Amino acid sequence: MKGEQQRQVYLAKRAKVSEQLGKREVFSVADAWPLYAGTQNIRRYFYINNLLLRVKDVPGHIAEFGCWRGATTSLMAKVLEIIAPMQQKVVHGFDSFEGFDKAIQKAKGLRSGYKGNQVELELLLELHGLSDAVELHVGDICETVPMLMIDRPELRLSFSYIDCDVYEPCVEALRFTHERLSSGGLIVFDEWNDPAWPGETQAAEEFLSMYGDMYRREATPIPQPSLVLVRL
């Protein structure tokens, strides 16, 4: 509760600072992003960068289940361009870009429902020359993943980022990942053990009850992501 109160105080202060600063040209902000980003945000992306370094030489592509606005999607594509430019690893992003359905939005008290913007994401990927580095699978994960399992039997993974929040798409993401993940590959959970999103934890624990002897658990030093599984 204390952490949530602190977060609300921070968000209120941030909103006030935003009003004081006024409008900014978007790329002038982006180019000076450490000035604007909070420590937790920077820590999160540094940690994901370090995870990608661990799988640089593990065979297989990257998958992200739940892209939202595509910040992590873009980060992973850019990191791979820097650390493994000759390996041609592709980031496969799965999202409907329509946000949660109305029932989930109402139950969680969400305003936007985490609706993404596919057009914006594709425009910015093109700007940075990364259109070929990311393959988006647009639609309900519970539908697009089973289709891809049939259409792309050759596809293998070295890294899977699970950020679906709710149970059913997490189950599909884990099923797909387990069949395709190379030894030494990583499964990373964004909201494992988060009381606000128990479905991700449930899917993870059910998965581990079946395949736990094939993975090693690692705790993370930050709130999100919150769990890493290493394929043995």
Would you kindly provide a written description of the structure presented here, covering whatever features stand out?
The chain is of the alpha/beta class. The chain folds into 2 domains: 1-36; 43-231, Rossmann fold. It is 49% helix and 17% strand. It is built from 10 helices and 7 strands. It has helices at residues 2-21, 26-30, 33-36, 39-54, 71-83, 102-108, 118-127, 141-151, 167-180, 198-211; strands spanning 61-65, 91-95, 134-138, 157-162, 181-189, 215-219, 227-231. The chain has a 7-stranded mixed beta sheet, sandwiched between helices. Helix 5 links the parallel strand 1 (61-65) and strand 2. Helix 8 (141-151) packs parallel to helix 9 (167-180) and helix 9 runs parallel beside helix 10. It is globular, with a radius of gyration of 18 Å. The mean pLDDT is 93.
